[in-house]
Structures are given as C-alpha cells and as structure tokens.
User: What shape does this take?
Amino acid sequence: MNEEAEKRIAAKLAKTMAMLCVRNTHIENSHAGLTPVTHTGDWSDVSVVDADGRRIPWTDVSHITDDDMRELMRDIVNRLYTFHLCADDPKLQAEIEKWMAVAGKWDEPEIDQRMIGCRGNRPRT
Assistant: This one.
C-alpha cells in the first residue's frame, strides 16, 4: 500500500474512532447546556458565582469534575477496547458505516508532535 493510501485510511479510521469512541460518550453530558457568551473573545468578561458566593473567572473554573473525568475516561477506554476487539461484528460495522459519513466532514487530522514527534512518515523496511 502506498503512503498516501495509508494516510487516507488512517485519517478515516481516526475520525471514525473519535466519533464512536470519544464524541458519543459522557463528554456529551459536559457539552450539553447553555454556553456562556463572551464579548472580549478571551473569556475575561465571564465569571461563575458558586454556592458560597465566590465569583470565579471563567478561565479559572474547572469545566469538568474529577468524577466526570473518571467516567469519561472509562467510557472512552471501554469504547476503544470494544472497537478494537469487535471491529468485525456486524452491529459495530453498521455503527461505523452510519457515523463514517458524519466524521468524514470533519477537518483532516494532523500528526500531534507532542505525542511522539513523528512527522507521519514511518521508516520502510
């Protein structure tokens, strides 16, 4: 397989896995609700008032609790595990096909240099 075809397949797989294994998880609960408005664009004009009356700048507010993060990570790990082990299951195949079209409209992925420093080219043997 040539390098361009390999990259195309990897991009499609990455977007599909992101949709099935990350997007449609507990993160949707954190994403739901009202989104505050900022007029400055840097969120310096937005704050939260907590139950103790503390006014906390939006940029200093934790946007996800430790329990939510734990549940989110469990959800993602379980879905990635299921994806890898059951990719040939007809029910999962149907879900993959269904969401592939939606994920296909997302931006093309890029190599995350912070992870491994790879430039997207694997050494050929």
